[in-house]
């Protein structure tokens, strides 16, 4: 049996609810660390940044599911919805920390969303994820029909690019890390571009 | 009701809420002190005198002001300087003073400090990134040094330069900014009594991550103007280049006075958050000239501070 088939067989035994359970924990844990003073002297920014990074990391994982299957045969499709919803949850927590703990002043929040391009871009990216989260259930797939549902969920690609650009724009000076995220996301999207079929010997 | 536990404690025995809330801060401060005493037994008190220019606001803890810094030579993360600045070599240390001065030369740090009266200046300190702290600096007025070397009549600006030790500075290796870091002031700003060269905090020698062994402190400007680990001071006729202005002129001007009315293109400057306040600390309004307007507003009489940001 090949390695990928062995991995797939083990993955088959992992219940999806376990992925949800594990996925829910990091923000809760980080918030707890913040409350007890373990996130440094500026815990609000630390929490906000860590949640944003978690969201981007999960976006990369979600985008990697189908290339991973194509290249290695390892199949995570069963978990993709859970991973997508967990990603939405991380970004939502990131946004809530910014709204409530970081800024917390309504007029300034609105001003930031309208006037600051990196915040505008981040907000648009989040807004694009809302219909995706709402329709991440079997009923929606049935009601919309598979083709329309898949078309809607291509918004993931736009949200991912906006999220990465949002991160790049926050950085001061020349910083590698945001560019690595952007590069990974663009690479995973490029994988989905139509590829010319290679000539095959038969 | 029988047998219910009765406490002899009264409400007057309860620890005040503020103290209880601050217990970790207190422990952290005690820990930091114990650590610094343990690790550096010979660390001498600088014996700074108090100053009328100090704010009566409570300074942030030593832990606060040395754990959350921008010092891009040692990385872009706020915790990076504390982690990486131990590599900075601060002894021997000399400062080149040149340009339009009567006595140019390379001055050993000890000669620069010799004869200076060290004062404790407790200043509000506002980062351009909308966070702030209160720091008990130790230092002397820059004017005292400039007077000693003799500023020539044509000098209009003072340029500063930070040390570059590529092998010790991870940020320099990565090319985060165009190093050496450079900054500048007008001669009037440099001669202002609030402007100090600082060689310590909390009456102890300057920690590396805070700009050892000697740095500038200009409390009414955003923190990045207060250049760290200075190796060169030049008096010039023309406005000198400054690092963040070179990196992004749209966002960072030469003056960079704290000004809630002039927002940074990427964020508002109307409010700030004092570090060390925990997860539920609220923002507070930012004051023009960081609250030092009575002392320094006259330096900019008639100037449009939105244009000249």
Word description of this protein:
The complex is a heterodimer of chains A (202) and B (309). Chain A has helices at residues 3-12, 16-35, 43-72, 77-103, 106-115, 117-134, 138-144, 146-152, 155-170, 176-190. Chain A is mostly helical. Chain B is built from ten helices and 13 strands. Chain B has helices at 17-21, 23-39, 62-67, 80-84, 109-113, 142-149, 170-174, 187-191, 243-247, 293-296, and strands at residues 49-50, 94-99, 105-108, 119-126, 131-141, 157-162, 182-186, 196-201, 204-205, 215-217, 230-236, 271-274, 284-285. In chain B, strand 2 and strand 3 (105-108) form a beta hairpin. The model of chain B is unreliable at 32-42 (pLDDT under 50). The A-B interface holds A 31, 34-37, 39-45, 47, 101, 103-105, 108, 111-112, 115-118, 169-176 and B 24, 28, 60, 63-64, 67-68, 72, 76, 78-79, 129, 131, 174-177, 247, 263, 265-268, 270-271, 273, 275-276, 278-283.
Query: How many angstroms does the end-to-end distance of chain A come to?
Result: 25 Å
* Largest interface between protein chains, with number of residues from each side: A-B, 32 and 34 residues
Cα-atom radius of gyration of chain B: 21 Å
Distance between the termini of chain B: 71 Å
Helix content of chain A: over 70%
- The H/E string of chain B reads HHEHHEEHEEHEHEHEEEEHEEH
Uncertain residue ranges of chain B: 32-42
Quick summary of this structure?
Chain A has 202 residues and is mainly α.
What's the arrangement of secondary structure elements?
The complex is a heterodimer of chains A (202) and B (309).
Chain A: H1 3-12, H2 16-35, H3 43-72, H4 77-103, H5 106-115, H6 117-134, H7 138-144, H8 146-152, H9 155-170, H10 176-190
Helix pairs in contact in A: 2-3, 2-4, 3-4, 3-9, 3-10, 4-6, 5-6, 6-9, 7-8, 9-10
Chain B: H1 17-21, H2 23-39, E1 49-50, H3 62-67, H4 80-84, E2 94-99, E3 105-108, H5 109-113, E4 119-126, E5 131-141, H6 142-149, E6 157-162, H7 170-174, E7 182-186, H8 187-191, E8 196-201, E9 204-205, E10 215-217, E11 230-236, H9 243-247, E12 271-274, E13 284-285, H10 293-296
Parallel strand pairs in B: 1-4, 2-11, 5-12
Antiparallel strand pairs in B: 2-3, 4-5, 5-8, 6-7, 6-11, 8-9, 8-10, 12-13
């Amino acid at each position: 049996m090949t390695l990928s088939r062995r991995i797939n067989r083990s993955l088959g035994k992992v219940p999806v609810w376990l992925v949800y359970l594990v996925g829910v924990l990091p923000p809760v844990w980080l918030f707890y660390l913040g409350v007890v003073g373990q996130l440094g002297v500026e815990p609000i920014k630390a929490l906000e940044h860590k949640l944003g990074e978690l969201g981007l990391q999960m976006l990369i994982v979600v985008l990697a599911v189908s290339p991973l299957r194509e290249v290695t045969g390892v199949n995570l499709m069963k978990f993709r919805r859970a991973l997508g919803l967990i990603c939405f949850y991380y970004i939502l927590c990131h946004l809530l920390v910014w709204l409530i703990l970081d800024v917390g002043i309504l007029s300034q929040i609105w001003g930031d969303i309208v006037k600051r391009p990196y915040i505008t871009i981040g907000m648009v990216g989040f807004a694009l994820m809302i219909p995706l989260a709402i329709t991440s259930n079997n009923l929606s797939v049935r009601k919309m029909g598979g083709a329309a549902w898949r078309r809607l969920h291509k918004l993931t690609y736009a949200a991912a690019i906006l999220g990465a650009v949002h991160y790049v724009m926050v950085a001061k000076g020349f910083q590698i890390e945001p560019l690595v995220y952007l590069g990974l996301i663009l690479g995973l999207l490029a994988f989905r571009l139509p590829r010319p079929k290679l000539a095959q010997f038969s | 009701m029988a047998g219910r536990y009765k406490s002899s404690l009264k409400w007057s025995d309860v620890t005040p809420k503020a103290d209880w809330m601050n217990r970790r801060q207190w422990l952290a401060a005690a820990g930091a002190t114990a650590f610094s005493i343990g690790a550096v037994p010979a660390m001498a008190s600088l014996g700074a005198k108090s100053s009328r220019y100090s704010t009566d606001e409570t300074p942030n803890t030593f832990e606060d002001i040395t754990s959350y810094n921008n010092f891009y030579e040692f990385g872009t993360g706020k915790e990076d300087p504390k982690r990486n600045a131990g590599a900075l070599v601060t002894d021997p240390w000399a400062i080149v003073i040149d340009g339009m001065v009567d006595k140019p030369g390379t001055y050993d740090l000890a000669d620069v400090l010799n004869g200076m009266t060290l004062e404790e200046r407790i200043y509000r300190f506002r980062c351009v990134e909308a966070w702030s702290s209160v720091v008990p600096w130790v230092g002397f007025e820059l004017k005292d040094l400039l007077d000693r070397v003799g500023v020539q009549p044509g000098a209009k600006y003072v340029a500063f330069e930070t040390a570059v030790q590529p092998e010790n500075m991870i940020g320099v290796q990565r090319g985060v900014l165009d190093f050496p870091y450079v900054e500048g002031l007008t001669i009037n700003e440099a001669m202002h009594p609030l402007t100090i060269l600082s060689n310590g905090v909390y009456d102890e020698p300057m920690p590396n991550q805070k700009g050892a062994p000697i740095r500038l402190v200009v409390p009414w400007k955003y923190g990045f103007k207060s250049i760290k680990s200075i190796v060169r001071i030049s008096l010039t006729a023309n406005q000198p280049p400054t690092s963040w202005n070179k990196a992004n002129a749209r966002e960072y001007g030469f003056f960079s006075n704290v000004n809630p009315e002039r927002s940074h293109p990427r964020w508002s400057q109307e409010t700030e958050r004092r570090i060390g306040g925990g997860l539920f600390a609220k923002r507070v309004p930012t004051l023009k000239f960081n609250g030092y307007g009575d002392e320094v507003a006259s330096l900019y009489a008639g100037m449009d501070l939105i244009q000249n940001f």
